[in-house]
Amino acid sequence: MKRRAGLIASALALAALLLALPRSAPLFHYWFPELDRPLYLQDGFGELLLYHLAIVALSGGAAALLGIGAALWTSRPAGRDFRPPLETLLSIAQSFPPVAVLALTVPLIGFGAAPALIALALYSLLPITHAALSGLASVPEDALETARGMGMSPRQMLWRVELPLAAPVIVAGLRTAMVINIGTAALASTVGARTLGLPIIVGLSGFNTAYVIQGALPVALLAIVVDQVFQWLGEWLTPQRHA
Fold it and tell me: What are the subcellular locations of this protein (predicted)?
């Protein structure tokens, strides 16, 4: 109940901020009297939030499909030998800063959201795949033996036993990846993608601290909301809750 109340409060705070920012010119004039234009007006903050969420959701969804799929494959007998090179490859991918990935992909596919999607998806693969591997490894052996004793096929065991028991750990990895992506997605505006990073980038290039604040506040609140959503989802999927 407390978790749900906190989530609702955070979501309401984000909504209130988005409604208040376009009307906050007097406040920022007072805080930054030296600025001629202290309020970012080039784009609507609600519109930027939707674009920001879309980039995070698409990149996170692609990373989840690839990461969980790779974890499932390497946890089966046919793919178990490929787990060490997979983890090495993911660690190498994680070591590349998103800015470096953006710089490499822009000359190949141009400016816009596409380079950001690739960079964020690569950056999300490691936490999601590791969480999926850990979750599948944490399934008790006696639960698997019981499923075999009931005559379940490997596919039935996967969908009815392994994935439900591993779900809380997998969701924890998704939670980590999504929260990181929300902050990192602000960098996507450096290559032409429309996100909540636009006021930040414009503010930094124009030495306008007010714009930076106006972009950073909704990014921070959005990260809090998404973090609480995945935390609530992980608790809801915990088997003890339904016992």
Answer: Cell membrane
The 10 Å CB-count burial string (b at 16+, else e) for 14-40 is beebbeebeebeeebeeebeebeebbb
Q: What is the pLDDT of residue 242?
A: 47
End-to-end CA gap in the chain: 18
Contacts of residue 138, defined as CB under 8 A and 6 or more positions apart, other chains included, come to: 165, 166, 169
CB atoms within 10 A of CB 67: 28
Angle at CA of residue 228, ends 49 and 24, nearest 5° = 40
Two tokens, residue 15: 């909504």
Task: Give the pLDDT confidence of 44-96 residue by residue, as tens digits.
Answer: 999 999 999 999 999 999 999 999 999 999 988 888 888 888 888 888 877 77
